[in-house]
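Annex B, item 7. Sequence and structure tokens for protein A, then protein B.
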Amino acid sequence: MTGTGADDFLTAFLRRSGLAAADETPAYTALAGGVSSDIWRAELRTGPVCVKRALPKLKVKADWFAPIERNAFEVAWMETANALEPGIAPKVLAHDAGLGVFAMAYLDPAGHPTWKDELRAGRADPAFARRVGERLKRVHAGTANDAAAAERFRTDETFYAIRLEPYLIATGRAHPDLAPRLEALAATTAANREALVHGDVSPKNILVAGTQPVFLDAECAWYGDPAFDLAFCLNHLLLKCLWTPSAADGFLACFDALRAGYAPAPAVEKRAATLLPALFLARVDGKSPVEYVTAEPERDRVRRAARPMIETPPGRLDGVRQAWERELRS
């Protein structure tokens, strides 16, 4: 990448922040990331760091825009979460809110594989899944009814733009008969302001650091409904049963372990169990479909399981898992 405009932009940021010396010109390697940001490994004299820049238009087929200011809230989530649970996220090293860019500690993939890669390989570890639930609950519990956190993470418009609209409202456009229920679910979720929400608790955004999970990509951070985080992560464990069918029983065991580690209060569990079928359907018919469920018969299996539960929500998360297990075994 040497000599590109991106290089110049990044080098200026790193020099200005003091991470790079005035006479230092780092080398950059683009890293695979999500759809919403560009990410680089920067080689500094002091060692590598990771630099992330938010994009105004997300890298998906549909038109999907979001303000780059979300980058500042990602930094704030990482700082808040690390204060509650040291090591739950990479350390933030520098940040320029105006440019939507920050630097954080670089965690070598050789020692920090993503949970998604582990699951893809069929390595379903319920003990690790339980720790994901425990760590997630630590952030939610540590910020519950916190007026300062509620004020700091007043990101309702951004959360709507990159979560509620593309997942719930867009799915309603694909299923018009379900649209009123999905719109009501979006409104109910938006109205619950109880704790600091990560917003993208996905296996691709969780590193496996020995026995502990490390959370990445918190640019959807929002003070709102903790049930969203719980449902969002559990959703991936259900979907992975179609990606690696041989490990489906292990993934369902991870579902149970994560829920047990989180130990949701009854009201949170009920909201999560209502959200989960909608998020499940969204990953085949919303704006951000998962890349590994593409065959129409598999997409139809998701629809057959999800639609009845959107029409008549289950009261508990194990009801969602059981309905999906019946579909898998049919």
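Protein B:
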Amino acid sequence: MQVVFLSQWRVLLRVSRSLTIKQMAMVSAVVMVFTFIFCFILLFHFVQQNRYTTATHLESVARSVREPLSAAILKADIPEAETILARIQPAGIVSRADVVLPNQFQALRMSFIPERPVPVMITRIFELPVQISLPIYSLERPANPQPLAYLVLQADSWQMYRFVMSALATLVTAYLLLSLMLSVAITWCINRLIVRPLRSIAREVNDVSPQERVGHQLTLPRLHHDDEIGMLVRSYNRNQQILLRQHEELNSHATRFPVSDLPNKAFLLALLEQTVAREQSTALIVVACETLQDTAGVLKETQREILLLTLVEKLRSVISPRMVLTQVSGYDFAILAHGVKEPWHAITLGQQVLTVINERLPLQGIQLRPSASIGIAMFNGRLPAKPD
């Protein structure tokens, strides 16, 4: 059950898509949408400003010919009216001038610039062409003057179309550059402020060895003492301290080591107290396996458990049924050898332990040669224990 849990835990910690890519994609999408809206509004603003400038110019041209045109229309002198209209300087803006009577009858038309086709969609969106209508009154106005006719000036739609295309090209370039700069800038800020601290925390948690997992404490980032990341780290550290206390309490009451199911340190101490109280002659052989410690960051959790159980079976093969094999830590074992009275007997048993541990061990395609060191302590009845 524990092996399955550890494998699932490692799968969950595997990153398939970086948070940097996700937040950059999200920031880029949001920036592009809002920048597009901004550039779209800006385009209509520029076109509206150009329409206003063109209409003002057309009105200025119309006022410059209104009085002589009014006199010519009042005299019904069509050739004179045509001559007056011909004197209008188009300046690349005025394309056509019409004289329309109050009954909507077109009395006169003068074209200055050949009309060139403009896409229908552009004319509908930007309401082209731009034109003004200026009423023409008699020089002697009565109390309620009525216009003699209307002078209608129309701007060149092609010039307005060229302006729209030029403004659109400029805004598209500005849109792309602005989207790129804002995406990079905002992404860098988010990455610096959020992603990097979270990535550092995730890597630190992922690199914690199984032996240090309980009670592990995260390092609080330097610039995140008073924000949500700081609260996350403090909450994690507090919960780890609570788990460490609970683990220590459980270990103090437990008598078996989790993986090997061997008696643990608390059980060993109780056996030693019982042996001393009964004044039995015994030997204590402590075996420290450096291989288990060295492979903590190399082998997978399942491989380390297989290695541990294999070493336990080898140790059991060299001790008699009267002796008790215990595990006092993740790397250390202890053999309580009852009935051993002579030092040479304890030394022989220790050499047998070293020999069986140092044998070559194949482990899922990996050839290991475990190594260990031992310590021996003797107790003879009422005499105190002494190292050998």
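Comment on protein B: The chain has three domains: 20-172, 209-253, 255-387.
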